[in-house]
């Protein structure tokens, strides 16, 4: 009988080459020696971990690697070519890398100084794709453009450059692009969406960049649309981008104020005090000049009014458009009568994000659901006039395609209302974000016990909205509603207490926003009680702890997530939680006590991967793991990967050695400005190296 080993090596090599998941490839390589050799021969992407001082031990068997990531070497954020713990010549280490990975054409590296870039590009002058990472500050003593001169002068084949996580000055880039016209003309991808910018690229700089790079297909830029600032982006800049780069398929222009992951004011009506200098006539001309667009993001941060007519042109001028994200655009869909208008005419859209639209109503959502029938992802944020009825009706219309939904900062959509609004796709949805706003959650919890008849009454509500759209649409809605309602029992399970419980069959990823001081425990009662396939959750905690009294409960509520049997990955982001890191005023809690509140109960979860962002004290730029947090994290006995996005004392980190199968731990200061020097034991290169050495000395059972 033939076995898999009888398959010719050529076919096996093609099978291996088609597998991109790292863990799957690692598992396959352990099957046999033959599989191990095939994996090494066909692996094209590799991320190096470990300590920079051990680079002399790098493997030499992955000769086919073309995509190499060096940005996660430890100690994180230090220049690995000049490690403080190694006296090895940087040129020798770089040469060693070149010998081990001769075929590299794509490189990601943490470049603390221009010297790192200069040394590495000498080893791989044929680089085509480069991503630079740096969260530390740029030294004022460096000449303008020093980070990019060697890169563009020596890598003549460069066509892809990502600076989204690289801190530099906006005036560094345009002169270098202009001085290297051949390389600039060959660039097809340029990501300048740097989140650490205060003001972003000025209008003139964007014109210079797009003039120097006429063949760009993808460009992402952080800029400023506020007309009160010098160099703001307006009509003239938009037309210059369209004229200079007519081949664009992806365009992302975002105001720097929109790049922070902070929830807006829920009481804001969606309109800002200032209007952007972007007119509807310019938008029509702008869209007409970019016929190849497939993805468009315009997150302006200032009012762009009466855009319905301009957005109608997208369907005719940009026929390949599949992804559209608009921020602070108003009048996108008027929905005055049964005839579709505005954004609802973009029938080819597969992903749509609407942010801070002050006049979007339920009728607009229904029109979008009717017109954009291919949507697989829909995000709505900061839209105060929409309600559960409109969003639920839209979900009914898009039941066959919609699998990813984000609902955030919408005044009429608390947690329970958001969950009810996506019930028509409850058995299909795979990705979901909601805000944990518990308006009257006790009553909601009781309503979960009323049985199946409650759900039938809820699903019939949207018909009243459809009656306003005409008899034809009312008939279509009733047909879909009847078809959906006939299978209602398929999505419910009978609990031991005798009541029906909603089941989210395919939900794999859940994202939550919650205000500081609130509890997570009402989540199951709000409607997320049964999620058998939920694997990953992200929790964003935001707010100011200063001035708040001690919470009434001991724990935030992470233990309530034990209801989800397959939950193995978590991102707990407290980075926007502000408090006192050192000494709090009398009667208030410092951040160590808040961390105890947030992390209490995390040991009850069966997590294998955890990303944790500690809360911060902005006054002293302090984000550090506290003693209670370290002790509570040490109770996660099934963890294999732990990434702490902040600093920590060495003796606190030693608590983590109690986790038996922990294999990968790293402290990452991936926020701006990352601390340059710490006089305590936090983040010292020697401290990190000692901890990693102790971690690697332990035997791992598997």
From TrEMBL:
CDD domains hit by this protein: F-box_AtTIR1-like
Domain F-box/LRR-repeat protein 15-like leucin rich repeat: 313-415
Cited Gene3D superfamilies: 1.20.1280.50, Ribonuclease Inhibitor
PANTHER family listed in its UniProt record: F-BOX PROTEIN MAX2, PARTNER OF PAIRED, ISOFORM B-RELATED
Protein known as: F-box/LRR-repeat protein 15-like leucin rich repeat domain-containing protein
Organism: Gossypium arboreum (Tree cotton)
């Amino acid at each position: 009988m033939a076995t898999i080993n009888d398959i010719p090596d050529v076919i096996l090599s093609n099978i291996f080459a088609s597998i991109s998941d790292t863990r799957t490839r690692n598992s396959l390589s352990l099957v046999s020696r033959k599989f191990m050799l095939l994996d090494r021969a066909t692996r094209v992407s590799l991320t190096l971990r470990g300590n920079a001082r051990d680079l002399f031990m790098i493997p030499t068997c992955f000769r086919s690697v073309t995509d190499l990531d060096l940005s996660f070497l430890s100690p994180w954020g230090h220049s690995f070519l000049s490690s403080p713990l190694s006296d090895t010549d940087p040129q020798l280490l770089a040469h060693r890398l070149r010998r081990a990975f001769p075929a590299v054409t794509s490189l990601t590296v943490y470049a603390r100084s221009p010297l790192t870039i200069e040394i590495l590009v000498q080893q791989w002058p044929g680089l085509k794709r480069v991503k630079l990472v740096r969260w530390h500050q740029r030294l004022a003593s460096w000449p303008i453009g020093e980070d990019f001169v060697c890169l563009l002068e020596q890598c003549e084949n460069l066509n892809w450059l990502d600076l989204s996580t690289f801190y530099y000055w906006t005036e560094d880039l345009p002169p270098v692009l202009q001085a290297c016209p051949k390389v600039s003309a060959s660039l097809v991808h340029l990501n300048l969406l740097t989140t650490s910018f205060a003001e972003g690229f000025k209008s003139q700089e964007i014109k210079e960049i797009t003039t120097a790079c006429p063949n760009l297909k993808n460009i992402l830029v952080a800029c400023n649309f506020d007309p009160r600032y010098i160099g703001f982006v307006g009509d003239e800049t938009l037309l210059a981008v369209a004229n200079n780069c007519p081949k664009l398929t992806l365009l992302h222009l975002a105001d720097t104020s929109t790049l922070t992951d902070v929830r807006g004011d829920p009481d804001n009506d969606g309109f800002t005090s200032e209007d952007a200098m972007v007119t509807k006539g310019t938008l029509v001309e702008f869209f007409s000049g970019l016929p190849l667009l497939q993805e468009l993001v315009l997150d302006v941060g200032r009012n762009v009014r009466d855009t319905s007519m301009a957005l109608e042109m997208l369907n005719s001028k940009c026929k390949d458009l599949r992804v559209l994200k608009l921020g602070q655009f108003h009048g996108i869909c008027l929905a005055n009568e049964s005839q579709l208008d505005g954004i609802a005419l973009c029938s080819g859209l597969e992903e749509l994000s609407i942010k801070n639209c002050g006049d979007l109503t339920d009728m607009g959502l229904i029109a979008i659901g009717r017109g954009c029938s291919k949507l697989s992802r829909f995000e709505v944020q900061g839209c105060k006039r929409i309600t559960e009825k409109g969003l639920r009706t839209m979900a009914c219309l898009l039941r066959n395609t919609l699998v990813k939904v984000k609902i955030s900062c919408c005044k009429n959509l608390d947690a329970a209302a958001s969950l009810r609004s996506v019930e028509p796709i409850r058995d299909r949805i795979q990705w979901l974000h909601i805000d944990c706003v518990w308006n009257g959650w006790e009553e909601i919890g009781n309503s979960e016990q009323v049985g199946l008849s409650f759900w039938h009454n809820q699903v019939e509500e949207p018909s009243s909205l459809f009656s306003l759209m005409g008899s034809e649409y009312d008939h279509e809605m009733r047909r879909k509603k009847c078809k959906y309602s006939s299978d209602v029992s398929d999505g419910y399970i009978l609990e031991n207490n005798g009541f029906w419980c909603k089941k989210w069959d395919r939900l794999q990823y859940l994202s939550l926003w919650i205000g500081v001081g609130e509890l997570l425990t009402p989540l199951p009662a709000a409607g997320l009680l049964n999620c058998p396939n939920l694997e990953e959750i992200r929790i964003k905690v935001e707010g100011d702890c200063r001035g708040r009294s001690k919470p009434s409960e001991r724990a935030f509520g992470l233990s309530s997530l034990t209801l989800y049997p397959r939950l193995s990955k978590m991102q707990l982001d407290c980075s926007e939680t502000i408090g006192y890191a050192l000494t709090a005023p009398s009667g208030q809690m410092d951040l160590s006590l808040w961390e105890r509140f947030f992390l209490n109960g995390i040991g009850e979860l069966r997590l294998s991967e955890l990303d944790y962002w500690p809360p911060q004290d902005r006054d002293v730029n302090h984000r550090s793991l506290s003693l209670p947090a370290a002790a509570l994290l040490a109770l996660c006995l099934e963890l294999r990967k732990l990434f702490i996005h902040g600093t920590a004392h060495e003796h606190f980190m030693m608590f983590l050695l109690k986790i038996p199968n922990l294999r990968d731990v790293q402290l990452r200061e991936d926020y701006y400005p990352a601390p340059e020097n710490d006089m305590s034991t936090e983040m010292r290169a020697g401290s990190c190296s000692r901890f990693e050495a102790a971690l690697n000395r332990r035997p791992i059972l598997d």
